[in-house]
Amino acid sequence: MAGWCRELEQIIGQRRLQPVFQPIVDLEAGSILGYEGLIRGPSDSTLHSPMMLFEAAERCRMLLRLDLACLRACAERFAELDLLGLLFVNINPETLLAEESRPGALQSFLARIGLDPKRVILELTETRPNGGYLPLREMTTRHRGDGLRIALDDLGEGFSNLRLWSELRPDFVKLDKHFVQNIHLDPLKEQFVRSMADIARQSGALLVAEGIESAAELRTLCRLGVRYGQGYLLARPQAAPPREIPLQAAALPWFGGRRHGLRNQPLARDLLLEVEPLEAGVPNETAYRRFADDPACFAIPVVQDGVPVGLLRRHHLLESFAKPFNRELYGKKPCQLMMDKQPLVVSADLTVHELSSLVVAAEQRYLVDGFIIAENGRYLGMGTGFALMRKITELQLSAARYANPLTGLPGNVPINETIDRLLEMRTPVVVVYADLDHFKPFNDLYGYAAGDALIELVAHLLLECVDQERDFVGHVGGDDFVALMQSEDWECRLRRMLERFGELAAQYFSDAHRAAGGFEVASRNGEPVFLPLTTLSLGVVRVRAGQYLSHHEIGAATAEAKKQAKKLPGNSLFVERRQPGASSCCACGR
């Protein structure tokens, strides 16, 4: 123990701590938001690992000194490297309350090394139960007054960090890696993260997922509305970290995803109304005059340094001021006293369908008084329940207008619009043309009801086979379908679908026809002809950026691929592997 203490004393005293930095990535844009500063001991020391370093500090009662030394080392090295964006640095709540880390001292230190406090995020890391909520809240408020921001680290791991979230209202919340690992395989983890994303939106905090190690985890997090993340998949901690995310944008799992996805749903930002907010310290009289002068003004957002903190509701304030002496009593007091302190705050990139579910699940007043729209936690504008319902109605009418009446799938217009949008975005996609073989003779023999049932089976299997979050299925008409796939494992998915069709389609034929392997029908000249059981053909064209100019060209290419698939026996998959102008292809039949 004494050896550890002496070694730790030397490491801190001789400033031998080694900072490394891990990028925190904007999962929507693929850009770097900032870096988390992490600490290692000297490479030749027994205290090299962070775990050993902090265990020694705790046993030697030097946690406060080590914590402050780590903060200073990370900040100094961050400034030396001239890294862009934000610096996230860990600090224990007890350290934050100590005299040595009082706001004035930290501000002076940051000014001395030339680092703007607004770029520094203090990550509160809990290692033991903490009951000092009031003093901690007061201290974080003072630090915020100096420009620093607060993050809550390891949500879901600490002793009371849900209570801390409520008490401190942090600017960032970091989700513990336990809830990220294999989230795509665990519905309970998905539900937890979905709930945390909703709470973050309403509280104005930005949610950061830690420990992302696989593309499947990343796609799931993006789908659940998590905007920021870090982990080995994106970049490992390094002494000299990259200034740009090392993966190319086109290769990122979220590329062409949430904002520019196949469905291209309208977003909350499309409902935006520009309403000038009021700062929390502005007197109520100012809000009263705005309501009185503008009968159409239904609510006024209240912000603090650009972050939404409340909502002044027209009917509440006017009714209050109509009571005797209330205007005189409250007119000069800050508007934060009369604001609704729990407004509905939503991300600008929330889809209108997600927003609708959120509003319906919330209290009725949000539908009446409207909601605040924020971007990166900062005020952007307002939306109304009326505008939301009107947009939802428009979407429903549009979907009904162009949907296939039998399957309910998007028809030709949305299929073509989606293809053209993908081409415009230069997004690689696999286009699949699905068609039933010998369908008309089957329909004539067994009747239209059986024919409709077989078409519905194909629709069901296509929807079952694709990735609902990344792929698109449309119904051209009759027994023709189109699928637009961005899934990396598209070929395996299609082969499984053909196997499944082969298993299920047999039940649509009589025992005699199944035993014979087909059925006999009359040809055009009246002669009997034997046809095999109805099968499914899939023609596939892989579309790369710049390869085709419009949905017309892709339609012609997939039609040709479908013809080639139909030449193969049984349920077949034909993949056009030629580049335009080439002379060879490869087909796969089953």
TrEMBL record:
The record's listing under PANTHER family reads: CYCLIC DI-GMP PHOSPHODIESTERASE PDEF, SIGNALING PROTEIN
Recorded hits in CDD domains, A to Z, give: CBS_pair_GGDEF_EAL (cd04598), EAL (cd01948), GGDEF (cd01949)
Q: Residues in domain EAL? A: 1-251
- Name the chain's protein: Diguanylate cyclase
The segment(s) forming the GGDEF domain are 427-578
Annotated membrane-spanning segments are none
Q: Name one Pfam family in it.
A: GGDEF
